[in-house]
Design goal:
Radius of gyration: 47 Å
Strand content: under 5%
Low-confidence stretches: 253-276
Keywords: Membrane, Transmembrane, Transmembrane helix
Number of strands: 5
Strand order of the largest sheet: 3-4-5
Mean pLDDT: 78
Number of helices: 18
């Protein structure tokens, strides 16, 4: 706006113009502040991202340097690495149905793996190399496990079925490899139904003390979980139906396969194909590959460290473990219960049910020992308010309060007859005196009418009082009846509780006999 336009503009116009310019400046300032805040936030994120990336790259570089040192140390174990390559070649040949060459253990005679592989090769060929088996067993505790899992993976599990029970000896828990071996046994990898039952019987003997242990509440909790029962009688009824074969199985949804995180850089042991879901032989191949990749006793820690460092180099931003992470062991009782709840094999189910009998016996005893549910108090609604009647009767103070509420309550419209009666007498006497003194008939009549009206009011008051008294008596009778009804309900509840306790004992006696009898 020019100076002349400003001069000829009115005062109101100048004010509006200035206000508009001030608003434009405020909006521009707010936009600039928002843009500045956005840029500051982006700069902060960029700085944080750069810092984290620099830290990750620094950690990756340190890991790369350390990995070089580890590789130099592993170079001193070239003989065992060569043996592992020969073993993997032999495994590949057997998997492909070809004849496998013996592994020459001369360069690493103190390493259990070549001797164990030669034992496997001999068994697959129809013979047996007892010297190799003995040497491998002497050099490493993993040798027997390797022979058994590899033969199972190759489809020759029946050759070593008798060795499976000793590999499943437990102190109450199983490692991952033992769990895989156990599930392969149930799947029939180590022989047909007859052979499997014999092996399971041997495993059951070794697990007898473990399965008989455990907390009684643990077993009762499992029964409650599987049955969905919410009281002791329902739990025992379910156990009875389970023993009678009337429970629909499987109880639970089939277990989900364990998810494993593959560690990059494992030697060709990892050539073993990924374990297919539900394929026990693939899981056994994975265990055998892991045992091969572990290396000898002297290089095991170096190989593990090399894998972790390689993982950190390949994925600097990843949050890999700083050291080897041991998976938690699997509790034997929980494993057997899980297999029983999920199996569809009648033979396996019958076998595992026999194993579960000691635990079910504990669950029965825990259910019987549990105190019965207390008889719940009965709440009654009365004219004087709610009243709770427990097994020992109603609370005396509360009952007195309810009665007082009824007796102290004056019904609406209730009249006191005293005042109208007195006034009616006064006006009657006044009318009589007026008649004797010679008052006019109109006055005497008016006084007499008032006396009559007051007399009627007095009569109505007495009637309303009697009606109120009858209502109070009825309300008090309702209270007494409510207390009596509550006592009757409590008596019925106690009788039902006694019946349930007796039925529970009878049911428990039968279960004790069946659970302690030979399956």
């Amino acid at each position: 706006m020019s100076d002349w336009e400003w001069f000829f503009t009115s005062e109101a116009g100048r004010t509006n113009l200035l206000r508009s310019q001030v608003d434009e400046l405020a909006a521009s300032s707010a936009s600039a502040n928002a843009r500045s805040s956005r840029l500051s936030s982006q700069l902060t994120r960029l700085q944080g991202s750069l810092e984290s990336r620099l830290n990750a790259l620094a950690a990756a570089f340190d890991a790369y340097v350390e990995l070089g040192d580890v590789r130099e140390q592993l170079a001193a174990h070239a003989d065992t690495a060569a043996v592992r390559r020969d073993v993997l070649a032999a495994v590949d040949a057997l998997v492909g149905g070809r004849r496998a060459e013996r592994v020459d253990p001369s360069d690493a005679d103190d390493y259990w793996l070549p001797h164990a592989m030669n034992a496997v090769t001999a068994l697959v060929a129809g013979g047996r190399d007892r010297a190799a088996e003995g040497r491998a067993r002497t050099l490493g505790r993993q040798a027997d496990l390797f022979v058994v899992v590899l033969l199972g993976a190759l489809g020759h599990g029946a050759l070593v079925a008798d060795r499976v029970p000793d590999l499943l000896v437990t102190d109450g828990t199983l490692g991952d490899a033992q769990v895989v071996l156990w599930r392969a046994l149930l799947a029939g990898v180590y022989g047909g139904p007859g052979d499997r039952e014999a092996v399971l019987a041997a495993v059951g003997e070794r697990w007898r003390s473990t399965l008989a242990g455990g907390d009684a509440d643990e077993w009762r909790g499992w029964v409650a979980e599987q049955s969905g029962a919410d009281d002791a009688e329902a739990e025992l009824t379910w156990v009875r139906a389970l023993l009678d074969g009337e429970v629909l199985l499987p109880l639970a949804s089939p277990r989900e396969p364990a998810r494993r995180v593959a560690v990059p850089g494992q030697e060709r042991a990892a050539r073993a194909e990924p374990a297919a879901e539900g394929d026990p032989r693939a899981a056994l191949r994975s265990v055998a590959g892991t045992l091969i990749a572990e290396g000898s006793e002297a290089e095991r820690d170096l190989l593990t460290r090399a894998r972790l460092l390689r993982l950190r180099v390949e994925d600097p931003s990843g949050l890999g473990p700083a050291g080897p992470v041991e998976p938690p062991p699997t509790e034997v009782r929980a494993l057997v219960r899980q297999e029983f709840a999920s199996t569809r094999d009648p033979a396996v189910r019958a076998c595992l049910l026999g194993w579960l009998r000691p635990g079910l016996h504990q669950a029965v005893e825990a259910a019987v020992a549990a105190p019965p549910r207390p008889v719940e108090p009965v709440q009654q609604r009365t004219p004087g308010g709610p009243l709770v009647v427990g097994p020992d009767g109603p609370d005396a103070d509360r009952l007195a309060q309810v009665r007082h509420t009824i007796t102290a309550r004056v019904p609406v419209g209730t009249l006191s007859p005293l005042v109208p009666t007195v006034l009616a007498g006064v006006f009657a006497v006044l009318a009589l005196v007026g008649a004797l003194l010679g008052w006019s008939a109109a006055v005497v009549g008016l006084v007499g009418v008032v006396a009559v009206v007051l007399a009627v009011v007095a009569v109505l008051g007495r009637r309303s009082r009697r009606q109120a008294a009858r209502e109070q008596a009825a309300d008090l009778a309702v209270v007494d009846q409510a207390v009596a009804d509550a006592h009757r309900q409590l008596s019925d509840a106690r009788a039902e509780q006694a019946r349930q306790v007796q039925a529970l004992r009878t049911l428990a006696d039968g279960l004790r006999r069946d659970l302690t009898a030979a399956p």
